[in-house]
Specification:
The complex is a heterodimer of chains A (46) and B (535). Chain A is built from 1 helix and no strands. Chain A has 46 residues and is mainly alpha-helical. Chain B is mainly alpha-helical and 535 residues long. Chain B has one domain: Cytochrome C Oxidase, Chain A (Up-down Bundle), CATH 1.20.210. In chain B, α4 runs parallel beside α14 and α6 runs antiparallel to α7. The chains are: A mainly alpha (46), B mainly alpha (535). At the A-B interface, α1 of A face α6 and α7 of B.
Chain lengths: 46, 535
């Protein structure tokens, strides 16, 4: 039998995972954006 | 106490559905947002299609008939941008919104407010882009590839183009993050990765592609913007920049983009063929690995779009061979779809008809792609109508037919009503006949040397251009049937049960038709999931 509040704890954990993974993927996207511009800047300065 | 219980009971049955304009403007429900994406995509399909009709009208005869060359180039550029970013991609996101939560046993998408935001960016992006027709200098005319230095000569519409591309990219990235996060975190207990329907798998892989490559496009157009307005010379040869580098960066985005447009269609066809063959999908795991392989290979083939810029022999060989490698996982998929039908109990309802047309006609686009992958042959085909024929075979009877097949497959689930099968079958036959009349002659034109992106041509190309234009007008007109069939279905279709198609498997068919406003408020049981995952 589940302890009282287990479902809400589970839900809180899921919300945390959702938030973390969304931030992670947003950072990955930002890194691709900045990375390609930085690559061109480095290439141009050589 | 009794009052509290009565209040709770009332809440348990009601759906908290907002009404009026608030339901749409403030929408956080995955079905409402999915509907908005699909309506938006349909609108853009007809606007982009209108541009295509004007292009075919101009090309009906040699000589300049109706438009000046600058406006013609604007039409080709805007047709591509609207169809790719306004019609096909939002249509897939709409289908993902509608189906993914229902298929993985979730109540909604993981990030509903972000979902609302990523949709509402789009109308602003495309209003901005389309309104560029009315600014001095007209709409962008340098092609959807936006190659410098040509695109840097664009008039007042240049910043509108760049800003709208940024907005489209932001919308796609946010939508993709939502899809990945939903699939990874919101699956019902028991819905393991290898129990997921192929549509969910293909969208998961598509979403990873989007997150990786849309920022690259955004970076490229940001650099175009600074070259134009802030004196940088990323791509300006006079200042030490390299215009060819733009092509490398653009196609590092652009080739995975092709798979972003087509992979969800693979998923839909993989759902439809088993249903109407009344057999499990042949080689489910091989299909998943094939899609993942295609996605991986899509990152290492980009330079096949630009063989003629001149590159070292080793690079040409690498990009030629890596491109040809894609035929292997694609062949696995075509084989598995065919093997699924082998000795199946086939029936040919509209979704199956469109899926079969996809199978044959997308394969033609694949074969012409192999021809284009060969470096010496590509030197002949580059920038001819053969390329136009190739990518339209991939995108029209490929991606668009995939979307239409998906809508005809799930429309009874969404509305709780069956559409007019006879009209939908007419829609299929008209589309399939005229899409070939439209695009097949363009192979001949290209092989005979007709260049793309020109409003005028030599007289020897007249006959096939006339045939192609007639096919184009007929194909365009026949698409008007599609919204008519959908509206008729919503208004007066015959009610259906949970399972619209007797051979259908998957969690969405366990829900009532139409499904409740919040899909799986209680996760489905393992037995229900196992029954749905019939592969």
């Amino acid at each position: 039998m589940e302890p009282p509040g287990a479902a809400s704890l589970d839900e809180a954990g899921r919300r945390r995972r959702v938030r973390r993974s969304a931030i992670l993927f947003a950072l990955v996207a930002a890194a691709f954006y900045v990375g390609f511009i930085a690559m061109m800047l480095v290439r141009g300065s050589k | 106490m009794a009052e509290h219980q009565a209040h709770a009971a009332a809440h348990a049955t009601e759906d908290h559905k907002p009404h009026g304009w608030r339901r749409w403007v403030y929408a956080t429900n995955h079905k409402d947002i999915g509907t908005m994406y699909l309506v938006f995509a349909c609108t853009m399909f007809f606007i982009g299609g209108g541009a295509a009709m004007l292009i075919r009208l101009e090309l009906f005869k040699p000589g300049l008939q109706f438009f000046d060359p600058q406006f013609f180039n604007s039409l080709t550029t805007m047709h591509a941008l609207i169809m790719i970013f306004g019609a096909i991609m939002p249509a897939w996101t709409g289908l993902a919104n509608w189906m993914i939560p229902m298929q993985v046993g979730a109540p909604d998408m993981a990030l509903p407010r972000l979902n609302n935001f990523s949709f509402w960016i789009l109308p602003f992006a495309f209003t901005l882009l389309i309104s560029s027709f009315f600014v001095p200098g007209g709409a962008p005319a340098g092609g959807w590839t936006m190659y410098p230095p040509l695109v840097l000569q664009t008039g007042s519409s240049f910043p509108m183009l760049i800003f709208s591309v940024h907005l489209m990219g932001a919308s796609s990235i946010l939508g993709a993050i939502n899809v990945v996060v939903t699939i990874m975190n919101m699956r019902a207990p028991g819905m393991t990765l290898l129990r997921m329907p192929l549509f969910v798998w293909t969208w998961l892989i598509t979403a990873y592609l989007l997150i990786a490559v849309m920022p690259v496009l955004a970076g490229a157009v940001t650099m175009l913007l600074t070259d134009h307005f802030f004196g940088t010379t990323f791509f300006t040869a006079a200042g030490g920049g390299d215009p060819v580098m733009f092509q490398h960066i653009f196609w590092f985005f652009g080739h995975p983009e092709v798979y972003i447009l087509i992979l969800p269609a693979f998923g839909i066809v993989s759902e439809i063929i088993p249903t109407f063959s009344r057999k499990p999908l042949f080689g489910y795991e091989a299909m998943v690995y094939a899609v993942a392989s295609i996605a991986f290979l899509s990152f290492i083939v980009w330079a096949h779009h630009m063989f003629t810029v001149g590159m070292p022999l080793a690079a040409q060989l690498f990009f030629m061979l890596s491109t040809m490698l894609i035929a292997i996982p694609t062949g696995v998929k075509v084989f598995n779809w065919t093997a699924t039908m082998w000795r199946g109990s086939l029936s040919f309802e509209p979704p199956m008809l469109f899926a079969l047309a996809f199978l044959f006609l997308f394969t033609i686009g694949g074969f012409s792609g192999l021809m284009l992958a060969m470096v010496p042959a590509d030197y002949q085909y580059q920038d001819t109508y053969f390329v136009v024929a190739h990518f339209h075979y991939v995108l029209v009877p490929g991606a668009i037919f995939g979307i239409i097949a998906g809508v005809y497959y799930w429309l009874p689930k969404w509305t709780g009503r069956m559409y007019d099968m006879k009209l939908a079958t007419w829609h299929f036959w008209l589309s399939t006949i005229f899409v070939n009349v439209l695009f097949f002659p363009q192979h001949f034109l290209g092989l005979a040397g007709m260049p793309r992106r020109i409003p005028d041509y030599a007289v020897q190309f007249t006959d096939w251009n006339e045939v192609s234009s007639i096919g184009g007008f007929a194909f365009g007109l026949s698409q008007l049937l599609f919204p008519y069939i959908i509206i008729k279905c919503i208004r007066s279709g015959a009610p259906i049960g949970n399972r619209a198609w007797e051979g259908a498997h998957g969690l969405e068919w366990e829900l009532p038709s139409p499904p409740p406003y919040h899909s799986w408020t209680t996760p489905p049981s393992d037995a229900v999931i196992a029954r749905g995952a019939a592969h």
